[in-house]
Design a protein that fits this description.
The protein is an alpha/beta fold and about 300 residues long. It folds into two domains: about 60 residues; about 200 residues, 3-Layer(aba) Sandwich (Rossmann fold). It has eleven helices and eleven strands. A hairpin with a 5-residue loop joins β10 and β11. It is elongated, with a radius of gyration of 21 Å. It starts with 8 loop residues before the first helix and ends with a strand. The model has no long low-confidence stretch (mean pLDDT about 95).
Length: about 300
């Protein structure tokens, strides 16, 4: 027997929301419930009010009960619904693919500002490379902003790139994707000296920081996309910076998302790699989250 007042949308929504276990109270409960009702039933907050007396069929109630149980076990809502938003683009995600964060939107917007200010490429466009693209969210947003530029995206396996390609398809943008391991000296991508901008959100959370992270992250999201060893936390930055020196045109820029606790070390790493004009920008929470640097002309 399901413990709700009725099968009206209004009653089911409040039953579902109040039954969610969260660490952040009613605000988080409402945010998750809103996402579930919108993604699964196409009901926005406004539609829920307008259709409050409408009744959902038993099959939908069974779905809600299963979703509530999975959420209370800690599974991220994005994996349950299979989709999230990134800069107004629907992005499909699944287990094994890192869920896009709002903080990462700030990195894309910083690069967007730079490209618009540079007016680089003219009518021919320029080349933008997303290293470690995952869901493809950053490459897709940039391709949406700059349809006349060539946007490339790489990751370590075809299985990951299948998701990025699908997301590009449903967002009606073009990205050129290819498999590349930044640690393999035998793979170069074949575009040395041709890229104008590189963007990357590599793994940067130290293993020792796991203890302060939410269980729905450590228990469900791919560890290989999140964590780095404490004794070498800049391993990806060092590898990508080295490749960026080969890939970028003279005067080209690289943009990174970074660990706020490692901002100074990241700046030092970029200087050691030969980059100039390295700077840090803070995210929406006023944390050192983004870095950019320029290859000498």
């Amino acid at each position: 027997m399901l413990d709700f007042k009725s099968n009206k949308i209004h009653d089911l929504y409040h039953w579902f929301k109040s039954g969610l276990k969260t660490d952040h109270g009613e605000r988080e409960q409402a945010a998750i419930a809103n996402e579930v009702f919108f993604r699964l039933f196409g009901l926005s907050a406004t539609q829920r009010i307008l259709e409050a007396e409408k009744r959902l069929p038993e099959s939908d109630i069974v779905i809600l009960k299963k979703v509530q149980r999975r959420l209370n076990l800690g599974e991220p809502v994005q994996y349950i619904t299979g989709v999230t938003d990134f800069l107004n683009h629907p992005i499909h995600v699944r287990p094994g693919i890192l869920i896009p964060r709002q903080e990462t939107e700030g990195l894309v917007l910083w690069l967007k500002e730079k490209i618009e200010a540079d007016k680089r490429g003219g009518d021919k466009g320029c080349h933008i490379l997303d290293v470690g693209t995952g869901s493809g969210c950053m490459a897709i947003a940039l391709a949406g902003y700059f349809p006349f530029h060539r946007v490339l995206a790489c990751d370590i396996s075809e299985k990951i790139l299948e998701v990025a390609r699908y997301n590009a398809l449903i967002n009606n943008v073009k990205i050129d994707s290819f498999v590349l391991d930044v640690f393999s000296e035998g793979t170069t991508g074949g575009f040395e000296g041709a890229v104008d901008y590189i963007i990357s959100n590599p793994p940067y959370v130290r293993e020792s920081e796991k203890t302060v992270m939410a269980g729905n992250v450590t228990g469900y999201e791919p560890s290989q996309a999140l964590f780095v060893p404490d004794n070498d936390p800049l391993i990806y930055y060092r590898a990508i910076a080295s490749r960026a020196m080969q890939w970028l045109r003279p005067g080209g820029w690289v943009f990174f998302e970074i660990n706020e606790a490692l901002a100074n070390q990241c700046l030092q790493q970029m200087a050691m790699a030969g980059f100039m004009e390295a700077s840090i920008r803070q995210d929406i929470h006023d944390r050192d989250r983004y870095l950019r640097a320029r290859k000498p002309c």
